[in-house]
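Internal ticket - ligand job 368, uridine-5'-diphosphate:
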Amino acid sequence: MDNCIMQVVGNRPQFIKLASVSREIRTRGYKEIIIHSGQHFDENMSDIFFRELDIPQPDRNLHISGGSHAEMTARIMIAIEKVILEYIPQIVIVYGDTNTTLAVALVVKKLNIPLVHIEAGPRTGNMNNPEEVNRVIIDHISDLLCTPDKSSFQNLIREGLEENAFFTGDVMYDIFVQSMKSIGQKEILKKYSVEKDKYILMTWHRQENTADRDTIQQIIELVELIDETIVCPLHPRTRNALRQFGLWNRINAVRNLHIVEPVGYLEMITLVSNCRMTLTDSGGLSKESFFAGVKCLFMANLHVWPELEESGWIYHMSKKNSFNIDFIHKAFKNNKVDSMQPNFYGDGNAAEIIVNEIEKRFNLKGCR
Ligand code: UDP
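stdout (structure tokens):
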């Protein structure tokens, strides 16, 4: 048994969200135990984030990846229960909406250990989306719900969760602000042979955009219509899907499209901060676009960040490529978020607010 704060993560965006909270916990002198479920595991998708963001190496890796939703959730539940019983943490912190988060939340709740959910409250209203199912369940069994924006907070109030809900701001914004201070941007742009405002940044990985050939083809057709340099760090799932559907050669023939391996966080935020616009199906990148003052064409029928849609930063892709191209022509770079822009995601100190609230609500005696 160990008096500690346990944090459990498993995929790329969770490593990024973990960074500023881990820093805050360690700065205050608490003993932190980090558990990695193993969902993302190689250098590009995992190790680089721990190194670049100065996150301690995980104390334990469960090495669980792949399989169906049920298999993965069940395997993580079985493995994490043993680890939790070994450490008996004072509280457990989880992030976002993955199967790792769901599995851990269920186990922690039944062991009667306080559970903190960071990035609580976003809702798409679509229960056919597996992440939505995870989000709703996790929020309803967590003891502290830290919301990144006010609309997520309102969603939780509507669901009767006001007692545990707290608007803290977004830990992704914290790490974005902190990291931007120390990057050699020129070298990174040179490495990818791009110039400020003269390229589009694209990422593409959601299951609904990689599972069938027609959807993949529609995205390729859009890319073929764009007459600008596009840099695309390609997710392994998309690479596999393109190969599986026999579309790898076709996408590689698009002259203006530069497909590269997934990049580290520092390169990514440099690429987003200097591009003319983003084309993505990533919830995280669509938000980072706003942090960087760049418009986003969102390639999924999910409405996760209402403030950004209402204020015109995120535009949803149409089924007709002519409409998408029209938006791409209109999206312009010289619309940086100025200081009068409402700060939807807090002030870059969400981790501090979260740890303050944890200290207020839970007994951390002995964790130092
Ligand atoms: N990201 C990265 N390198 C890449 C692609 C994405 O560092 O090659 C970062 C991106 O900046 C964002 C996060 O990973 O912070 C988003 O992860 P992803 O798109 O995998 O997941 P989602 O946001 O859809 O949950």
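Auto-summary: The two ends are 14 Å apart (CA to CA). Residues 69-87 form the longest helix (19 residues).
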